[in-house]
Amino acid sequence: MPRRRMAAADNTASTTALPASSLLPDTFTDGLPLPKLIVFDLDYTLWPFWVDTHVTPPLKAQESGRSVKDRFGESFNFYNDVPAILDAAKSLGIKVGAASRTGTPHLARDMLKLLRISRESNGSTEKAIELFDYLQIFPGSKKTHFARIHDSSSISYDDMLFFDDESRNRDVESLGVVMWLVRDGVTTEEVDKGIESWRRRNKKVAN
What we know:
It comes from Lineolata rhizophorae. The protein has a domain at 34-47 and 79-105 and 115-200: HAD superfamily/HAD-like (Rossmann fold, 3-Layer(aba) Sandwich), CATH 3.40.50.1000. Helix content is 24%, strand content 19%.
């Protein structure tokens, strides 16, 4: 049964500058090692819908890019914590990627182009897609997505952390990537758990 998309009002990304304690996962500022690259799935990881089944083009930005409206007037946006997480990661010099197996890559890219993210570092807003260093959006095994990211970035697999909502995609761990399974979208708490798992797996801290 398809999962119910969360109401837009509950997930609209605020452009108001947040206090540092709300903006950053604790692991971003605790002084311990961080992955060089964090990769996110899209559907039910960064946003609460399947872009290939819930969204009908054409798309139009609304509320200055805080959300996107489709042909039928349905509103779509990121999970609440996502904009601040992406902004913080980029501000810390962490590379950001997306690995999605959606059947409508063009629609996913359009969504990322229309949604905008506030940058606390300079008070500006940017298209969400501009915060991603690597985009691999096409049907198929996530291992192929990561092989392409690895080839493009020259970043070791063990320096990569992956957030995804489907356990079948744990097969990327055979490459050396650490995957953290999320059930209700990416939050600051899930990022902390994922980074802590990455540190344990790579012996960056004592178990």
